[in-house]
Each structure stands twice: as structure tokens, then as C-alpha cells.
Amino acid sequence: MPEPVPLSEVKRRLTEEASRRTLPREAMLAQGHSETFARLPPEETTKLLSALRELPYVDAGMAVKLADLMPQYPEELRLLYSKERVLLDEPQLTKLLEILAQYR
After folding, report:
1. How far is CA 72 from CA 1, 12, 15, 86, 97, in A?
2. Residue 71 pLDDT > 90, yes or no?
3. Residues 25 and 62 in one domain
4. Between the chain's N and C termini, which has fewer beta carbons within 10 Å?
């Protein structure tokens, strides 16, 4: 399975490619989406991903989801983890929210 790529990295790659050539329609749509919704610069996203990956209950895919969405409330975290078959307790939720708050 390929490694997930955060939205800020997609934005950076598409911007570089657009400076070299005209992008196809789908790539232009993806670039517009990434410019609208990428919340952090790529360097900050990399730091955030490494901080999140230190936690035992955050895998690579979930770390990218968290970095892209930057949830602010425990309910949002519970919703993201609802498909993961992992129940987070209050200290785990608080730790995740603290890490995310450092990068807002």
C-alpha cells in the first residue's frame, strides 16, 4: 500500500509542476482543492506528522488525516477514529488535541 501524502505536500508538488508546464484538468482541480484546504506549510506538516506518529494509536494514514483536517474537538476525533476500531479514552484525546493545538 502506498504511503499517504498530506495535502500540503500535494499543494507543493502541484505548484512546482504547474510552474513547469500546463497541468491537465484533473490536476488543476486537485491543485485548487489543495490551495483551498491545506492548513499548514509542508515543513510544519512534516513536524506534526512526526509528533503524531510517536503516539502508539496513530498510524501513518490517521496522522495524515489529522494533519489535513486539524480537528479541534474530541467529537471530531471520535468521528475520525470511528472506522479504525480503536476507542480512545479522554487522556488520549486530550494528548492528540494538545499536539494539534501546537501547530494551529
Report:
1. 29, 25, 28, 19, 7
2. yes
3. no
4. N
